[in-house]
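seq as requested:
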Amino acid sequence: MLPDFIPFKAEVVYLTGIIEIAAAIGLFIPNIRIVTAWLLIVFFILILPANIYAAIKHIDYQKATFDGNGPSYLWFRIPLQILFISWAYLSAIKK
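C-alpha coordinates:
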Protein backbone atom coordinates (compact mmCIF):
# COMPACT_ATOMS: atom_id res chain seq x y z
CA MET A 1 0.00 0.00 0.00
CA LEU A 2 3.06 2.24 0.04
CA PRO A 3 4.58 3.88 -3.06
CA ASP A 4 7.65 2.33 -4.66
CA PHE A 5 9.98 5.12 -3.55
CA ILE A 6 9.50 4.23 0.13
CA PRO A 7 12.12 1.69 1.27
CA PHE A 8 11.52 -1.07 3.83
CA LYS A 9 7.77 -1.23 3.23
CA ALA A 10 7.08 -4.18 5.52
CA GLU A 11 9.06 -2.57 8.32
CA VAL A 12 7.16 0.71 7.89
CA VAL A 13 3.85 -1.15 8.16
CA TYR A 14 4.98 -2.91 11.33
CA LEU A 15 6.26 0.38 12.74
CA THR A 16 2.90 2.07 12.15
CA GLY A 17 1.23 -0.82 13.97
CA ILE A 18 3.56 -0.35 16.93
CA ILE A 19 2.84 3.39 16.89
CA GLU A 20 -0.90 2.69 16.97
CA ILE A 21 -0.54 0.35 19.95
CA ALA A 22 1.74 2.80 21.81
CA ALA A 23 -0.72 5.63 21.15
CA ALA A 24 -3.63 3.55 22.44
CA ILE A 25 -1.69 2.93 25.65
CA GLY A 26 -0.65 6.60 25.83
CA LEU A 27 -4.27 7.73 25.77
CA PHE A 28 -4.81 5.86 29.04
CA ILE A 29 -1.95 7.63 30.83
CA PRO A 30 -3.22 10.99 32.14
CA ASN A 31 0.18 12.75 32.11
CA ILE A 32 0.73 12.15 28.39
CA ARG A 33 -2.86 11.93 27.12
CA ILE A 34 -2.96 15.36 25.45
CA VAL A 35 0.45 14.99 23.78
CA THR A 36 -0.49 11.50 22.63
CA ALA A 37 -3.76 12.75 21.16
CA TRP A 38 -1.98 15.51 19.21
CA LEU A 39 0.58 13.01 17.92
CA LEU A 40 -2.24 10.66 16.93
CA ILE A 41 -3.92 13.45 14.99
CA VAL A 42 -0.64 14.12 13.14
CA PHE A 43 -0.29 10.36 12.54
CA PHE A 44 -3.80 10.13 11.07
CA ILE A 45 -3.04 13.03 8.74
CA LEU A 46 0.29 11.50 7.68
CA ILE A 47 -1.18 8.09 6.82
CA LEU A 48 -4.01 9.52 4.73
CA PRO A 49 -1.82 9.85 1.59
CA ALA A 50 -1.00 6.13 1.84
CA ASN A 51 -4.72 5.35 1.88
CA ILE A 52 -5.28 7.61 -1.14
CA TYR A 53 -2.38 5.95 -2.99
CA ALA A 54 -3.74 2.49 -2.19
CA ALA A 55 -7.19 3.46 -3.44
CA ILE A 56 -5.83 4.90 -6.68
CA LYS A 57 -3.78 1.71 -7.26
CA HIS A 58 -6.84 -0.50 -6.47
CA ILE A 59 -5.01 -2.35 -3.70
CA ASP A 60 -7.08 -4.99 -1.93
CA TYR A 61 -5.92 -4.90 1.69
CA GLN A 62 -7.16 -8.38 2.55
CA LYS A 63 -5.66 -10.21 -0.43
CA ALA A 64 -2.66 -7.93 -1.14
CA THR A 65 -3.64 -7.79 -4.80
CA PHE A 66 -4.37 -4.96 -7.22
CA ASP A 67 -8.09 -5.66 -7.68
CA GLY A 68 -9.50 -3.70 -4.75
CA ASN A 69 -12.34 -1.19 -4.67
CA GLY A 70 -10.21 1.66 -5.93
CA PRO A 71 -11.08 5.33 -5.45
CA SER A 72 -14.61 4.47 -4.27
CA TYR A 73 -12.89 3.25 -1.08
CA LEU A 74 -11.98 6.87 -0.33
CA TRP A 75 -15.66 7.75 0.12
CA PHE A 76 -15.46 5.58 3.23
CA ARG A 77 -11.86 6.08 4.33
CA ILE A 78 -11.57 9.87 4.28
CA PRO A 79 -14.67 10.44 6.47
CA LEU A 80 -13.38 7.67 8.74
CA GLN A 81 -10.03 9.49 9.11
CA ILE A 82 -11.93 12.70 9.94
CA LEU A 83 -13.92 10.76 12.54
CA PHE A 84 -10.70 9.39 14.10
CA ILE A 85 -9.15 12.86 14.22
CA SER A 86 -12.30 14.34 15.77
CA TRP A 87 -12.54 11.48 18.22
CA ALA A 88 -8.94 11.93 19.37
CA TYR A 89 -9.46 15.67 19.76
CA LEU A 90 -12.80 15.56 21.53
CA SER A 91 -12.03 12.66 23.85
CA ALA A 92 -8.48 13.51 24.90
CA ILE A 93 -7.76 17.18 24.22
CA LYS A 94 -11.00 19.08 24.62
CA LYS A 95 -12.24 17.70 27.92
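The first helix runs from residue 9 to 26.
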